[in-house]
Amino acid sequence: MKSALFIIAQNNFQDQEFSEPRRILESKGFKVIVASKTSSEAKGAFGLKIKPNMDVASALDNIDSDINSYSAIVFVGGGGAASYFDDLTALEIARRMYDNRKVVAAICIGPIILANAGILKGKNATVWPSESKTLTSKGAIYLDKPVVVDGNIVTANGPNAAVEFGNVIAKLLI
Predict the structure, then answer these.
(1) Which domain, by its residues, includes 70?
(2) What angle is formed at CA 4 by the lines to CA 152 and CA 139, rounded to 5 degrees?
(3) Domain of residue 13, CATH code
(4) How far is the C-alpha of 101 from the C-alpha of 112, rounded, in Å?
(5) In terms of CB atoms within 10 Å, which of 5, 42, 108, 130 comes out highest?
(6) Mapping DSSP to helix (H, G, I), strand (E, B) and coil, where does residue 38 land?
């Protein structure tokens, strides 16, 4: 069974940006594994509570031991996602998945994680509008669209794009 690794903030992840892509991928037969800063309960901005399967360091260990552990990585947005902007483990996960041609996806402010990992240079991408200048300062080509696909990278600009984002990831994985 193919699996997707969702990385959420410990606090203030965007509930819909997690729930919709997860629902879509699970409906297509994918196993969704959730990682956060710790494996203790994570809380969404609108009250969703999730018990992560593991912390991000363990997720990186899984990738190190078997790059095929996950078919995709999904960075969920919401204000809490900023906690991963400079998180060396999260940045390394993004780079390794990208380098191994896995689907790398991020929504809302999450694409800044991909930009900080250095994988959006010269790539088309979108992001929550307040972060568009940050994206372009890291070498990405900002497109004001709900969802943008460039090769194996999928970016989306917020909760209103969550369903399309999930469907695009599923399509790339099938």
Answers:
(1) 3-173
(2) 35
(3) 3.40.50.880
(4) 19
(5) 108
(6) coil
